[in-house]
């Protein structure tokens, strides 16, 4: 057991508790749920440390349980998400202040309309007894006043809606950009742990839903304007009907409206849950459409439809509650409206009978009651929406908070390393331990020490699941090591700004992704901050054996690529190699397998790979004997450890050696001309 004080004081922790380490641990779901349930840090750390394998040294174990935030961070209570969003909305105060003023004027003119309308009715009641000319003149006066109120109301509505909509657009756009930027700056572990579909859902659907909901509530009978109008309508109604009307407009209507609002808010929370479940449907469908070929190959159409059916059952389950609650909201809202109508007719009738209310004032009261009805119904929707909105914002901001706040520029300028140094490409792994953040209890790498001299080629071989790709992933900085150091020319790679590091390292994957755009854009993607002119792009394509086939495409380098494009796997791979080449990296990481390609493509890709390996430090996951033979050093990786290393001949001569056994194993053996390890 390790006490809190012990790990806080431990020098190793102090040395290694970089922002990144702290972050990786901070976002552990176990930790989060424990913190959420109020379990103290020391209990959490002790129980976690107890679950780490015995093979892991104390330093790694301690790091695994190191404090995640400074005490001051932990004690800082984040603001309520809705307040945070409103704060960001109010950054648009230049738009919002005139919008709110316009809304108030719009509402005031709307509140005046029933009075003007009442006057017209009063005029009509006595119109027959008036002189026709005087009557017409008075009618014109009433009409002009009403028309003026209508015009003001319409103009104010235009100003309010257009300005407020712009403010909402800007702030939701900012939120979307911030969330996208923050999540992208994280290492892959963050995505593994949080879930790609959850991130996608937040950036696309949740923020869109926030925007749409807010936009919808700009209409006259909702949101801010409805609140103002309900307030004034109640005051005027009470003042018209006096003590007789007070129980109705001062008590009954507010109580009924509050009840309806509470049901509306519950409905909003349930609607959010339905939307969340709907997100699951979306990611299921898009994944299956992407994997269409696999589904067809396995004749799994029916199975997949059934699987979708099961997901939809889940949606329906949540939706059932929501539909019930929706029905309740609607019916309570209707009930409130009818009760208000009935009460106003009774109160109005009684007042007319007792000669305390003129027809003019009754008509005026009618206007206010209708206003009340519309606005209260609108407000119940607003409250439903606001509950949904607050849940969406909670989800968006929780993702934003957990996403690493990595301002590389600020950090590295402070370190004085923003100037791009000329790296030689010397790579060193020193006692590297690693567990995937999504599997904190399994150490995948157990003390890796590797040294790659500039220009050397080091091949990783070994059994499946041994950790070869993980080593490559750490060097390409997809994940941060749990403990130990990886350095480039003696500098810890975690302290090199991501943009600078990305220029030094290139990864050639087995199944590279191209983005929508022209072939040229895809190649030039490797060098975004400099002018990757046509010469550079063409030169890279030539070196990658891609130029010839690109020139045969209908629009050459301007041919658009999209996922359905008629470009083979080998061609895609060569475009990706060209993309890696334009940035002239010092260190190259490659997973060599080309087994999915036909012989001709494989030869072309292999040929391109061999060419680009020249004069670069290469970490290679070797699948062919030919490349293993030409490697300066071969490392045999098993269970996260380098169990054997040396030159090709040296390893082959080892009696009972792992490498020798692998080469001799017929199923794994690959000669210079054919199949992979
Ligand atoms: N994203 C991940 N999350 C959790 N565990 C992972 C992840 N990726 C790999 N692992 C686990 O890490 C271990 C090492 O995997 P790795 O992919 O590095 O092996 P490998 O040597 O490259 O195997 P192969 O030769 O089959 O590609 C395996 O046990 C694997 O299950
Ligand atoms: Mg692998």
TrEMBL record:
Signal peptide stretch: none
Annotated ranges, domain ABC transporter: 427-664
Listed SMART domains: AAA
One biological process term in Gene Ontology: oligopeptide export from mitochondrion
Domain ABC transmembrane type-1: 99-388
Pfam families: ABC_membrane, ABC_tran
Location of the protein in the cell: Membrane
Record keyword Nucleotide-binding present: yes
Chief location category: membrane
GO cellular component assignments: mitochondrial inner membrane
Record InterPro entries: AAA+_ATPase, ABC1_TM_dom, ABC1_TM_sf, ABC_transporter-like_ATP-bd, ABC_transporter-like_CS, P-loop_NTPase, Type_1_exporter
Keyword field: ATP-binding, Membrane, Nucleotide-binding, Transmembrane, Transmembrane helix
Domain of life: Eukaryota
Molecular function in Gene Ontology: ABC-type oligopeptide transporter activity; ATP binding; ATP hydrolysis activity
Gene3D superfamilies in the cross-refs: ABC transporter type 1, transmembrane domain, P-loop containing nucleotide triphosphate hydrolases
Sequence intervals crossing the membrane: 95-117, 146-168, 226-256, 335-353, 365-383
Membrane topology of the entry: Multi-pass membrane protein
PANTHER family: ABC TRANSPORTER B FAMILY MEMBER 28, ATP-DEPENDENT PERMEASE MDL1, MITOCHONDRIAL
Protein name, entry field: Probable ATP-dependent transporter ycf16
Organism expressing this protein natively: Gracilariopsis chorda
């Amino acid at each position: 057991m390790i006490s809190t004080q012990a790990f806080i004081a431990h020098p190793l922790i102090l040395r290694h508790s970089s922002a990144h380490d702290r972050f990786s641990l901070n976002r552990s779901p176990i930790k989060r749920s424990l913190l959420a349930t109020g379990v103290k840090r020391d209990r959490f750390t002790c129980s976690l440390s107890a679950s780490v394998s015995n093979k892991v040294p104390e330093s790694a174990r301690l790091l695994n349980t190191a404090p995640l935030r400074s005490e001051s961070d932990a004690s800082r209570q984040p603001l309520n998400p809705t307040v945070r969003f409103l704060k960001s909305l109010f950054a648009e105060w230049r738009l919002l202040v005139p919008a709110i003023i316009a809304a108030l004027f719009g509402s005031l003119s709307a509140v005046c309309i029933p009075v003007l309308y009442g006057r017209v009715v009063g005029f009509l009641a006595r119109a027959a007894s008036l002189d026709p000319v005087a009557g017409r003149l008075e009618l014109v006066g009433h009409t002009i006043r009403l028309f003026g109120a209508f015009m003001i109301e319409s103009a104010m509505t235009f100003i309010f809606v257009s300005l407020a909509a712009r403010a909402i657009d800007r702030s939701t756009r900012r939120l979307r950009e911030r969330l996208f930027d923050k999540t992208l700056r994280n290492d892959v572990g963050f995505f593994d742990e949080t879930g790609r579909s959850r991130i996608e859902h937040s950036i696309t659907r949740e923020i869109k839903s926030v925007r749409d909901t807010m936009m919808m509530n700009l209409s006259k009978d909702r949101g801010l304007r409805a609140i103002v109008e309900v307030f004034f309508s109640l005051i005027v109604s009470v003042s018209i009907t006096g003590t007789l009307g007070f129980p109705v407009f001062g008590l009954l209507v507010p109580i009924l409206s509050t009840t309806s609002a509470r049901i509306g808010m519950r409905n909003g929370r349930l609607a959010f849950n339905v939307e969340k479940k709907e997100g699951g449907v979306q990611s299921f469908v898009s994944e299956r459409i992407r994997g269409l070929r696999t589904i067809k190959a396995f004749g799994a159409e029916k199975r997949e439809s059934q699987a979708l059916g099961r997901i939809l059952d889940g949606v329906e389950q949540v939706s059932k509650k929501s539909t019930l609650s929706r029905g309740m909201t609607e019916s309570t809202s209707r009930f409130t409206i009818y009760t208000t109508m009935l009460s106003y007719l009774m109160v109005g009738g009684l007042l007319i009978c007792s000669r305390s209310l003129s027809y003019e004032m009754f008509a005026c009261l009618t206007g206010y009651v209708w206003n009340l009805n519309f606005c209260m119904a609108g407000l119940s929707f607003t409250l439903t929406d606001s509950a949904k909105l607050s849940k969406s914002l909670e989800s968006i901001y929780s993702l934003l908070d957990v996403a690493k706040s990595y301002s590389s520029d600020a950090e590295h300028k402070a370190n004085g390393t923003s100037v791009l140094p000329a790296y030689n490409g010397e790579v060193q792994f020193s006692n590297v331990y690693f567990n995937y953040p999504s599997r904190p209890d399994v150490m995948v790498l157990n003390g890796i020490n590797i040294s790659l001299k500039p220009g050397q080629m080091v091949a990783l071989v070994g059994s499946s699941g041994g950790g070869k790709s993980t080593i490559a992933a750490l060097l390409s900085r997809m994940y941060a090591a749990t403990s130990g150091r990886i350095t480039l020319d003696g500098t810890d790679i975690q302290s090199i700004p991501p943009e600078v590091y990305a220029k030094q390292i290139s990864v050639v994957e087995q199944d590279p992704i191209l983005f929508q755009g022209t072939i040229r854009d895809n190649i030039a993607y490797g060098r975004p901050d400099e002018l990757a002119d046509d010469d550079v792009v063409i030169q890279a394509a030539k070196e990658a054996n891609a130029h010839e086939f690109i020139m045969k495409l209908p629009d050459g380098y301007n041919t658009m690529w999209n996922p359905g494009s008629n470009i083979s796997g080998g061609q895609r791979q060569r475009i990706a190699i060209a993309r890696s080449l334009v940035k002239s990296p010092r260190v190259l990481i490659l997973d060599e397998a080309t087994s999915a390609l036909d012989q001709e493509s494989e030869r072309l890709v292999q040929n391109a790979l061999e060419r680009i390996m020249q004069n670069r430090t290469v970490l290679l996951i070797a699948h062919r004997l030919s490349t293993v033979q030409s490697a300066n050093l071969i490392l045999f990786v098993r269970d996260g450890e380098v169990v054997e290393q040396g030159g090709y001949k040296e390893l082959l001569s080892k009696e009972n050696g792992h490498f020798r056994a692998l080469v001799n194993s017929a199923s794994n053996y690959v000669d210079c001309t054919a199949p992979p390890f």
